[in-house]
Amino acid sequence: MGLKSLILVAAALLAMVLPGCSEPPPQALGTLEYDRIAVPAPVAERIVAIDVREGEEVAAGQALLRLESTRVAATTQAAQAQAQRQSAALAELEAGPRSERIAQARAQLAAARAQARDAQAYYARLQPLGARQLVAAADVDRARAAAGNARAQASAAQSALDELEHGTRSEQIAQGESALRASQAQATAEQATLAKLSLVAPRAGIVDSLPYRLGDQAPVGAPLAILLVGDAPHARVYVPEPIRADVRVGSAARVFVEGREAALAGKVRMIRSEPSFTPYYALVGKDAARLSYLAEIALDGEDARQLPAGLPVRVEFGP
């Protein structure tokens, strides 16, 4: 074989080896995901009806499930009754004392004054007799005490009448108004809780999961239904540390979905500033030992709307 032939063979071998040794373009791996929202349990009550099934599309406001309402309904009625009682009490304070009570107080004042005059007259008659020692000093002392007590009772009756005639104090009315507002707020809160026992979809979406079944009693705050919402899924990927500096919100991206040849166009809508360890399904060669940054890629185009969640994706950044 001549020198020229050897050169041609070496060139051919080099052309075959170099493509295999070239570095792949920077990429991030992840999955397609939808935004998820949870519908929590407002109270710890038994599930009495489930109106949807997993995988069903629901509209905003559509009924999902219902909880038993007996206890909450009773609590709501009690709160409403308390609010009505406070309202009546406030109306009584604003109306002031009844005329019959004022007349009664005036009669009691007249009786107390009469008793005071009688006790004072008796003491006046007994006092000179005591001075001449015709009666015991103890009797004079008792008469003087009785006269003083009768005057005090008359003064108390006068004060009671004055209080009724002046009406309710403004501070009492303010207290009544505050008590009424508090009871009304409690009744409103109970009414809102009662309404929440019929759970509805807060947004249009797909029922992804119903963790509890008919008859279960979930704790307060437990997710009773999980919905997938949004017009299209997004790519949730882990960006390797070497290319993190070139990826920012708004960066263009090409998303390759498993099973599809053509890439989908997208833009980075979120990327975390703090790194995390790369999950097992995003490990590629030497990237296994690196930290990565969670990012979300919004997808463009009508094709993306038809894709299901959970598909593996590969994302390349740049124009």
Automatic annotation (TrEMBL):
Could you tell me which InterPro entries the record lists for this protein?
HH_YbhG-like (IPR059052), UPF0194_transport (IPR050465)
Chief location: other
Signal peptide segment: 1-22
**Is Nucleus there in the keyword field?**
no
Keywords assigned by UniProt, alphabetized = Coiled coil, Signal
Annotated localization: Cell envelope
In terms of Pfam families, this protein maps to: HH_YBHG
- Pinpoint the YbhG-like alpha-helical hairpin domain residues: 79-188
Entry protein name? HlyD family efflux transporter periplasmic adaptor subunit
Q: What is the protein's species of origin?
A: Cognatiluteimonas sedimenti
